[in-house]
Amino acid sequence: MQPSPTIMPVNDAPKPTSELPIAALSGLAASGFLCIVTETLPAGLLPQIANGLKVSEAVAGQLVAVYALGSLLAAIPFTSLTQGFRRKPVLLATIVCFLVGNTLTAMANSIDTVLTARFVAGCAAGLAWGILAGYARSIVRPDQTGPAMAIAMVGVPLALSLGVPLGTFLGNFVGWRGSFLTLSALSVVLIGWIVVKVPNAASRTQTNRLSLRSVISTKGVMPILLVILVWMTAHNILYTYIAPFAIGSQSRVDLVLLTFGISSLAGIWIVGRFVDRMLRRMVLLAIGSFAATSVLLTIAGEHEVAVYVGAAIWGLGFGGAGAMMQTASADAAGDGVDLAQAMVTTAWNLAIAAGGAIGGALLTTGGTPMLPPVVAALASLAFIIALVARRSAFPAGRRALPR
């Protein structure tokens, strides 16, 4: 067996510190937040966008689809191609793409121009997701990687719970074009923050770059990707169509999402505290509680109380999902962390697409009551995969220090 290649240091590589670099990790978290909000913003603005561009709402909805397509297609190849570049310039390049993409979206009068801008921004998001986890791990000590990942990934549940409501709120005050320009302004601020607060990190030389085949064949990587694909497909079946499901139980959609979001923040805090000591237990608990919640909604989904209780339990497990899955995949992949994270991004986007398609089909054929039982079945399958993969994917006990 050949020894694992190591990452070659650069002159401005960060020095280990006794405390977590909160400012730097916040910059990475804000980058993730920007990725997700840029993706989901159009969902709350579809009528305005459709009217402004003189297209149907169905066509306007493709602003989300084409962004996800860009992320899906770009994550692995772009991450592989940029292995030889230092991390800070690569991250800054992705934020610049968000700045350009959102500005063009706000200024354009042609749907073709807008779709092109969204696709480019989606490609940048795919690359950003491919490097964020490895970047976070590279600027902290090995024993700090778990909490660092939790902080760096905090932007994901925040954006998922706030993205659509934020877009709707902004649209009411500044219009849909003003909403995208607001994201452009945030991009400028974030660029400045990264330049000042986020240290650079190592690149790879030609001799120590890993191939896609070697990373995907590493023990533990494939089971983790399967868990992500199945678990997140189940999540997106319910999350994508939470509005009609909540309405069916006489629940307020905004309050259900708020409950989910607050609970997700609690989940992030819990993961940050305990991920190093009990990653396996937390993964199984998160997936298992989601499966149990789906069963609850199958039995009592027409009752308002059950929906709010379910949203709270669901959010608690989902809040730390990104940190847990990226920690597990990074641990399993070792020096192949960047390519592994690109695969995680690909699996996540496939799950988003699959969840939307499957949920739509279920909604058409049987209405909202069809959603929870299918979600319960998929969540149970994800639980079984994680339960069986106890050796290299989700090992028991305290995490070993990253290689």
List keywords for this structure.
16 helices, mainly alpha, Growth Hormone, Chain: A, disordered N terminus, 403 residues, globular
Secondary-structure map:
Layout: H1 22-40, H2 46-53, H3 57-60, H4 62-81, H5 87-107, H6 111-138, H7 145-152, H8 155-197, H9 212-216, H10 221-240, H11 242-248, H12 253-300, H13 304-318, H14 321-333, H15 337-366, H16 371-388
Helix pairs in contact: 1-5, 1-6, 1-7, 1-8, 4-6, 4-15, 5-6, 5-8, 6-7, 6-15, 7-12, 7-14, 8-12, 10-14, 10-15, 10-16, 12-13, 12-14, 12-16, 14-15
Short characterization:
This protein is mainly α.
Describe what this molecule looks like in 3D.
With about 400 residues, the protein is mostly helical. It folds into two domains: about 20-200, MFS general substrate transporter like domains (Growth Hormone, Chain: A); about 205-395, MFS general substrate transporter like domains (Growth Hormone, Chain: A, Up-down Bundle). The protein has helices at about 20-40, 45-55, 55-60, 60-80, 85-105, 110-140, 145-150, 155-195, 210-215, 220-240, 240-250, 255-300, 305-320, 320-335, 335-365, 370-390. The longest helix is centred in the C-terminal third of the chain and has 48 residues, at about 255-300. It is globular.
